[in-house]
Amino acid sequence: MAFTITCPVCGIRRGYEFRFGGEDKGPMPPEESLASETWCEYVHMNNCIAGIQKEWWFHRDGCGSWFTIYRDTTTNQQVENR
Amino acid sequence: MRLKSNSNINGRLWGWDPPLKSSYDAVIIGGGLHGLATAYFLARHHGMSRVAVIEKRYIGFGGSGRNTAIVRANQRTQENLPLYKEALEMWPVLTRELDFNLMFYNCGNLNLAHSEAALKAMRLQVASAQIYGIQSQLVDPEQCKTLIPALDISDRPRYPIYGGMYHPPGGIVRHDAVVWGLAKGAARKGIHIHQGTEVTGIGVKNQKIVSVETDKGKINTSRVLNAAGGYSAALSYQMLGIRLPISVLTIQAMVTQPLKPLLNHVVSSGAYHCYANQTLKGEIATGAHMDPWPNYTNQSTARYIKHQAEAVTEFLPCLKGVKFMRIWGGLADMTPDMAPIIYGNDPIKGYYIDCGWGYFGFKSCLVTGKYMAKFMADGTCPNILKPFTLRRFEQHRLMGETAAVVNYSPDN
Ligand SMILES: Cc1cc2nc3c(=O)[nH]c(=O)nc-3n(C[C@H](O)[C@H](O)[C@H](O)COP(=O)(O)OP(=O)(O)OC[C@H]3O[C@@H](n4cnc5c(N)ncnc54)[C@H](O)[C@@H]3O)c2cc1C
Ligand SMILES: [Zn+2]
User: How far is B358 from chain A (nearest CA, A)?
Assistant: First the structure.
C-alpha cells in the first residue's frame, strides 16, 4: 500500500516527499551539567518499537514544516493520535 | 507451530526435535547465523552443549536467509579489519569442519570510484587493509574493464568510472548452506535448536539473568545472548528496558533471470547505491536499497525496482532489457557508526548482545560466533571484540566505518 504522510500544512502527500526526523524523545535535555550518558540517551538511543510510535517528520520537498505523527512501524500506516 | 521431524529440513539435518528443557547453561535468542555460530562454538571450543537456540520462526528466517551473501575483508578502520580478516579466512576451515559445502566462491570484489574524492578515500582504505595483510589494491578504469569486460568505462554514464578498489580474496558464500551447516554441526554436538518458539520475556534478579520466558514454557538459565537481528533492539527495550543506538530499516535485494556467465566478480558502486554479482545459477543478484525511515515491513517497493534497474544498467549497460525474477526485503539494524554492538555482562550479569549488523553481518557471523562463545564461556570480553562495546556511544568514540560505505541511515 502506498505510504503517505499527512502534513499539517499541505495535507496527505507521498511519503517520499518527507525526511524522517527520529523517534519523539521529548524535549532536549538542559545543557547545564549535562552528563555524557544523558546526552547519549537523547541523541543515539532508540526504542525501536515494532508497532505504533510517535515520531518526527520534515516536509523536505514541500512546505518545510517539522511535525510529529503516529505511525505503525510494522505497516508504515500513519494512525490517529492516541 | 511446532515443526515435525523428518517432514522438513531440520528432520533431515539433525533427525529429531529436542524437548524444551526447564534449564540450560545458556539460551540464545535467534536462530540466525550469529546465534547458531555462537552455539556451535560454545560446544566446539568450550564444552558447553547444554545450550538452547530459541527461534521464533525457522532457522534463517531473518537476515541470515535474505542477504546477498557478499563477503570481504577490506573494511576501513583498524578496529574492524582484524575481525573481518579472520572472518574471511574461516569459510574454507568451516567447510571442512562442518563437512558441509558452504560454496565459498572467492571471485573477488571490485568497488568502483566515480570521483577523485572517492579514489582518495579508497587509497586510504587500501593502505589500511594492506597493513593488516589483506589483499587490496587500487585499479584504473582500464584495469576495471579487464576485470569486468561488461563495464562501461566511457564518459557516457552520469557518474563515469574513475577507478576502483580490487579485493581478490572476497566473494560470495551460499548463505543457506551456512545456516544449515552450522545448525547441523551444533545439533550434532548436543545443542538444542527450538524452532517455532518465541522468547517472550527475560527474567532478571539482582541485576543477574535468571530465566527466559518462551511461549512454550520457562527456561532457567544464567546466560542469554540477544542475537535477534533486526528484532534485537526492540526486544532489548521491551524485555529489559535497555535501549540501543539502532534504527531498523527494511532493505531490499533482487535477482534477474539467469544469464550466461558475464560477471565474474562482485561489483559495487557507492555513487549508484548498487552492487551486483552473478550467482552460480546465472542470475544477477543485486541490491541493496534501504527505506529512508525505520520500519519492520520487510516489504519490497516499485521505487527500488526502478532505481535498481537504472543504477545497474548505468555501469553494466548489457543488462538493459533483462528481467527481474524475484525481489525481497529484510531488516537491517543500523548503528550510527556502521559498526556492530558486541557487548555483555553489563549492566546485567549474564546478558550478552550481538547486533547492529545492518547489512554487513553475514560476512562476520563465524568469527563473531567464535569470540562471542569465548565471551559467554569466561565472562570476559576477548580483545578483538572490545572496540564494539555499547559504551562507545556515551564515550563519544564512534568508529570511522561510516566513511567506508554508503551511509544509508534515516538521517540521509
Ligand atoms: C537484503 C539484505 C542483503 C544483505 N546483504 C549482505 C551481504 O551481502 N553481506 C553481509 O555481510 N551481510 C548482508 N546482509 C546483512 C546480514 O544478512 C545480517 O547482518 C545477518 O544475517 C544478521 O544475522 P543474525 O544472526 O544476527 O540475525 P537474523 O539472521 O536476522 O536472525 C535473527 C533471528 O531472531 C529471530 N527472533 C527475533 N525475535 C525473536 C524472539 N522474540 N524469539 C525467538 N527468536 C526471535 C528471528 O526470527 C530471526 O530468525 C544483508 C541483509 C539483507 C536484509
Ligand atoms: Zn507540508
Answer: 14
Residue B284 contacts by C-beta under 8 Å, 6 or more apart in sequence? B255, B256, B259, B263, B276, B277, B278, B312, B319, B322
CA-CA distance, B90 to B71, in Å (whole number)? 11
Options 3.40.1380.10, 1.10.150.20, 3.40.50.9100, 3.30.9.10; which CATH number does B123-170+247-336 get?
3.30.9.10
Instruction: Enumerate residues 6+ apart whose C-beta is below 8 A from B192.
Output: B18, B20, B21, B24, B51, B52, B53
C-alpha cell at B51: 545450550
Mutate to test the pocket of ligand 1, among B304, B359, B372 (most ligand atoms within 8 A of CB): B359
Note the helical H segments in B296-364: 302-315
- Contacts with B303 from chain A: Cβ below 8 Å: 16
Ligand 1 neighbour B248 (Cβ under 6 A): no
ipTM: 0.96
Q: How far is CA A45 from the centre of its chain?
A: 14
Closest by alpha carbon to B65, among B177, B199, B227, B181? B177
Structural domains present in chain A: 4-79 (3.30.2270.10)
Cα angle, residue B366 at apex, residues B363 and B369 outer, rounded to 5°: 125
Q: Mapped to the 3 state alphabet, what secondary structure does B149-190 carry? A: CCCCCCCCCCCCCCEEEEECCCEECCHHHHHHHHHHHHHHCC
Q: What Cα–Cα distance (Å) separates residue B3 from each residue in B45, B196, B209, B368?
A: 29, 7, 29, 28
Query: Is-cis flag, bond preceding B347, omega within 30?
Result: yes
The model's pTM is: 0.95
CA A22 to chain centre: 5
Rounded Cα distance, B40 and B192, in Å: 11
Across the 412 residues of chain B, what is the mean pLDDT of every consecutive 10-residue run? 49 78 98 98 98 97 97 93 97 97 97 95 96 98 98 96 98 97 96 97 98 98 98 98 97 97 96 93 92 95 93 96 97 95 97 96 98 98 98 92 50 40
Q: For residue B72, give the nearest of B168, B147, B138 by alpha carbon.
A: B168
Q: Which residue type, as a one-letter code, is found at position B145?
A: K
Judge whether B396 is closer than 8 Å to chain A, CB to CB: yes
Helices (H) and strands (E) counted in chain A, each on its own, are: 1, 6
